[in-house]
Specification:
Layout lengths: L2 H22 L9 E7 L2 E5 L13 E4 L5 E3 L8 H10 L5 E5 L2 H9 L9 H6 L5 E2 L7 H11 L4 E4 L3 E6 L2 H24 L7 H19 L1
Parallel strand pairs: 6-7
Antiparallel strand pairs: 1-2, 1-5, 2-3, 3-4, 5-8, 7-8
Amino acid sequence: MGVMDKKLNLYKRQIIQIGQRLYQKGLIVATEGNISVKVDENTLLATSQGIHKGSMTPGQIVKTDLKGVKLEGKGEPSSELKMHLAVYHTRPDVNAVIHAHPPVGTGFAVAGLALDQFILPEVVVTLGTVPLLKYATPTTDELAELVSDSIAQHDALLLANHGALTVGKDLMTAYYKMETLEQFARISLVARLLGRENILPPEAVEKLMELRAQYLRKFSS
């Protein structure tokens, strides 16, 4: 087995593992969600259409080029692949993209609310804020363009009436950001139910943003 084959097999195992985690955590159900990873400058691996991500097999992961043209695989690439490609073309530092429907985060997206308040130091440092994109029909060029416009400055997005998208330098980083997004949404919802979100003061946010810059430098290298 060659080096490339070993690399592809490793990424397929990671995609399968993350699909299982997303399903077990309730961040997706049925055939929801999609996952991709950039193998090199010309090659992607992506989940195929209409499959249950909690019980994937290696044969259900498709290899494409960076234009979305299928190179290998039995199924067809995810119908949301345009959105993933928009990220890769906008953010050369990103090597993995996850789209899911975390229930509380998606609830914010359905309600037309961004997760953009500075309330949790850990979230500010590791995730920043999560803007809400206006609604666009899934699978369309319009949605891909909206993602491209916003992902340049963010690592996580809420998609109005649709779900969430997170990115990372690798698959696990993108997955952890999806977990963080949902935890952020849960805590924000509880705070609002209790009466209000206690926003961090500007001077605290400034210090946290300095820590975030250090964090990004450390974990992007």
